[in-house]
Amino acid sequence: MWGLLHFEPEIPTIFIIFLKWQGIITNFYHIVICILPRYSSLLNTNQPKKMKTKIFASLTCFLLFVLNLSAQPRQELVEVIVSPDHADWTYSLGEQAEFSISVYRNNVLLDGIEIEYIMEPDPGYRTLKIWDEGTRILKNNSTKIKSKKFTEPGFLRCTATVEVDGKEYSSYTTVGFAPDKIQPTTTLPKDFESFWEKGKEELNQVPMNAVLTLMPERCTDKVDVYHVQLDNIKGKIYGILTKPKKAGKYPAILHVPGAGIRPYYGEIDEAAEGFISFTIGIHGIPVNLDQSVYDDLSRGALNGYQTFNLDDRDNAYYRRVYLGCVRAVDFIESVDGFNGEDIAVTGGSQGGALSIVTAGLDDRIDYLAAFYPALSDMTGFLHGRAGGWPQIFVEEFTNKPEKIEVSKYYDVVNFARFVKVPGWYSWGYNDNVCPPASTYSAYNVLTAPKELHLFQKTQHWTYPEQQELKKEWLFTKLKK
């Protein structure tokens, strides 16, 4: 069985459809939305504590099993392989990339068939411009295609498509040209720091009023689990706290979420290893409700929340979210058993963005670890290259001067400029949701200690090895 892949669910639905199209099977969504809530409702009955614990454990095991089956890349009868001539997929300016294209059926190379190819720079999940396209016949089991010379830092994607027995098969590879020299297109507003200092001052005037509710059905012999409610500016923030039962002083990890609206279950295994773990939602609603509540919000009131009030700097949706992350740090400092010193923040996609934002806003953060941070260099599309998720500046509705200006106050690039703590980062060149041009735009302005772990082939998901590397880095830093 393949190792478990991890990917961040990105709502709206177009991203789920895209992931399916790219070969990520997402039956997981159907399990969570349609099946799990029906059985998890048993946890809200008057079942004995021991029975509730068994039910929760069974549901967890079932979910992990489904994830292992459903989050794997879909295997097709015919595989199209696009291989660059540099093993690290990275080139210097002025170089040409050469792609070798081959096609396998039943692990046997095919020959004499026609392939279509297209080369496009920095595409995201849209086609911005086409550099080259055409057809080739596979001879001696492959064909080679050379790109133009790249004179500016960026990325180039080569997509190959073949038809076999009336069905199309496709694959792509994205290579980088001097990605470490990519600079952001967004700019730093002169009052950026004062704007956010004012926001934190406003937050400080709001009492935290923490309400912790023990969740006995989720507790183990080593870990206590709580549902947490905190007061935030203009609403609440909710999360799941997991902490060791054993008395002691522990470092803490704040988990910030990928995009979407969903329940959370907490990091029980992490707490069992000697950490206080706090996993938050960002939408001001409890994170332990029936799945149908989140489904309704996703389709209704919170559909497209990413662009809510984007023309109003003081009321943009992410203002409350970003300050809510600071409130989460406030709470961690108040938790009995926190060692008073060591806090890390971590997440992927929107969570990767929030990790950088939190570290940029709050000097109580000591370490951060981020996968493919979203909301980075969102104005990229206005300059002929892919911008970061949610990839909004491509249509007249969002391409308004006031929206573009407000985005600068929420772009991860501008928070990265103020990060002062060590960071661990990881992404792939093939990511269409958070394209590498956008993530490098944030990474390249970081002046704090940083390390980048590239897994070039990955799209908007991670290998188990990436997750293990992140975990090892964080645990080592926090238990120094």
Automatic annotation (TrEMBL):
- List GO BP terms, alphabetically: polysaccharide metabolic process
Specify the domain of life of the species encoding this protein.
Bacteria
Q: Where are the transmembrane segments?
A: 12-35, 55-71
Name the InterPro entries on file. Answer: AB_hydrolase_fold, AXE1_dom, CE7
- Pfam families noted in UniProt: AXE1
**Domain Acetyl xylan esterase positions:** 183-470
Ordered alphabetically, the record's keywords are:
Membrane, Transmembrane, Transmembrane helix
Q: Which residues form the active site?
A: 349, 431, 460
Which N-terminal residues, if any, form the signal peptide? none
Q: Which GO terms describe its molecular function?
A: carboxylic ester hydrolase activity
Name listed for the protein in its UniProt record: Cephalosporin-C deacetylase-like acetyl esterase
| Organism in which the protein naturally occurs | Arenibacter echinorum
